[in-house]
């Protein structure tokens, strides 16, 4: 089967540029599908026939296919920065051409040439997260005020995507492997938070100045479980809005990878 590219997807879209998907054009939507930033259901005007043709082809896309060009561009930007000068603003340390950044309590190193090193697995989502964080150069302090993703400026149109691709997969992990999930939150330097209406309120730091508050409530006889991710209102000072989703995807993929090594995970969970 030929490689899926934005133009081949665009040919099957309505081509109305109606913006009902939250993007400015059908070509932008086609590109977002390849980057896994949108799903077919986000286009309310897609024909049933086009959806049936595209769905199996999109499922075969590996994350690297849609993101490698973007990552290479970010590396080029990072190569032009003075990592040593901006280390303090990032909450990182710098020595001999190596910028050391804590990600979920683990050490990741960004070299002056933009490449990453770590003893941990570096998936494409983590790479995007770290490179975007460096590109923004980190200035100022966090606000201490928690907001939902949809409350961020201009984020409302993509809030359903954030819920579907970030909060729902993490909730599925928490539901099916609750104790493992809580252990992982602790292993990755999560700290309990007080004063929230949830069974578990935990603050984690995907990046030094990008804290996430995870609120998880277990299911009971009358109500399903729930999981929400709240963000410090200053988050877009440190990473672009679109990179927030990459960051959450990185966490989800990391957790799924770890869980799968210890227990059998359902096919539904692995495919989320």
Outline:
The protein has 272 residues and is an alpha+beta fold. The protein is built from ten helices and nine strands.
What's the helix and strand layout?
Layout lengths: L5 H5 L15 H9 L13 H12 L3 H17 L3 H8 L2 E3 L2 E6 L2 E6 L4 E2 L6 H13 L9 E3 L10 H18 L1 H10 L3 E2 L7 E8 L2 E8 L8 E7 L8 H22 L4 H4 L2
Antiparallel strand pairs: 1-2, 2-3, 3-4, 5-9, 6-7, 7-8, 8-9
Helix pairs in contact: 4-6, 6-9, 7-8, 7-9
Explain what you see.
This protein is α+β, with helices and mostly antiparallel strands. The chain folds into 3 domains: 6-61, Orthogonal Bundle (3-methyladenine DNA Glycosylase II, Chain A, domain 3), CATH 1.10.15.40; 64-136, no CATH class; 146-270, no CATH class. It has helices at residues 6-10, 26-34, 48-59, 63-79, 83-90, 124-136, 159-176, 178-187, 241-262, 267-270; strands spanning 93-95, 98-103, 106-111, 116-117, 146-148, 191-192, 200-207, 210-217, 226-232. It has a 5-stranded antiparallel sheet, with helices on one face. Strands 1-2-3-4 form a 4-stranded antiparallel sheet. A hairpin with an 8-residue loop joins strand 8 (210-217) and strand 9.
């Amino acid at each position: 089967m030929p490689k899926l590219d934005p133009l081949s997807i665009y040919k099957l879209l309505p081509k109305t540029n109606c913006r009902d998907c939250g993007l400015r054009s059908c070509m932008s939507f086609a590109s977002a599908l390849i980057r896994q930033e949108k799903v077919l259901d986000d286009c309310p005007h897609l024909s049933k026939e086009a959806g049936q043709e595209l769905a199996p082809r999109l499922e075969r896309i590996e994350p690297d296919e849609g993101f490698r060009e973007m990552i290479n561009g970010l590396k080029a930007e990072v190569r032009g920065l003075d990592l040593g000068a901006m280390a303090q603003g990032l909450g990182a340390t710098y020595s001999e051409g190596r910028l050391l950044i804590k990600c979920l309590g683990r050490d990741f190193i960004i070299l002056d040439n933009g490449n990453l090193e770590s003893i941990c697995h570096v998936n494409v989502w983590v790479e995007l997260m770290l490179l975007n964080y460096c590109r923004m150069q980190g200035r100022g302090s966090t606000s201490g005020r928690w907001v939902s993703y949809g409350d961020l400026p201009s984020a409302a149109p993509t809030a359903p995507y954030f819920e579907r691709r970030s909060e729902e997969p993490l909730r599925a992990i928490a539901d099916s492997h609750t104790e493992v999930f809580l252990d992982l939150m602790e292993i990755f330097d999560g700290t309990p938070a007080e004063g929230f209406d949830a069974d578990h309120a935990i603050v984690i730091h995907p990046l030094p100045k990008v804290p996430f508050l995870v609120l998880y409530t277990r299911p009971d006889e009358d109500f399903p479980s729930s999981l929400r991710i709240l963000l410090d209102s200053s988050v877009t000072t440190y990473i672009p809005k679109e990179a927030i989703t990459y960051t959450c995807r990185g966490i989800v993929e990391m957790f799924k990878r770890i869980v799968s090594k210890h227990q059998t995970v359902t096919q539904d969970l692995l495919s989320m």
